[in-house]
Amino acid sequence: MQVQELAPGLWRWSAEHPEWRPGEGWEPNVGCYYAEADDATLLVDPLLPMGADEARFWTNLDDDVERRGRPVAVLLTTPYHRRSAEVVAARYDAPIHDGARPGDRLPGGVEVLEPSDGASPLWLPACGALAVGDALISVGGELRVWWVFHGEDDEREFKERWLPMLRGWLQLPVEHVLPGHGEYVPGGLDALAAALEREPYEEVI
Question: Residue ranges per domain, the chain?
């Protein structure tokens, strides 16, 4: 498990995905996030680390939850990231917010952005963070849009619908982009804008 403070009240930890196999197209360690808002402690796409790291994880998280004295909320950017959500939610008697609709307001003032294929990117205004789930991936220190191409129709959908929708995120005061896969990339809005100008990270099926 790797833990990284991105800003006051905003932390990233990584854990190995239990279903990862060689050739997946993404690294085995995935990113999860802890964020503090005035009225809630937010856990985005949580995945428990394995082995001895699990006890250390619970000790540190229990201390933070107790210190803050705020209710915990588990937020998912996609149903595929449910993973450890139920275990975490049960420990803190927390709700799991999964599949909310665009414009919905969640604990901490979190806003659900326009989804695609069941995804629910999240805007966390308390820390200026955009939790993009699998919409973007960090590869080689750069953010790139992540897209699965089945053929020409998918390429048209990407150019005409998906990419313009992502460009709408540039209207937000983004300080941190939080991808589910790959390392954290600093730069906030500039890093996001650069990602939208690059060729997408393709999965061809």
Answer: 2-204
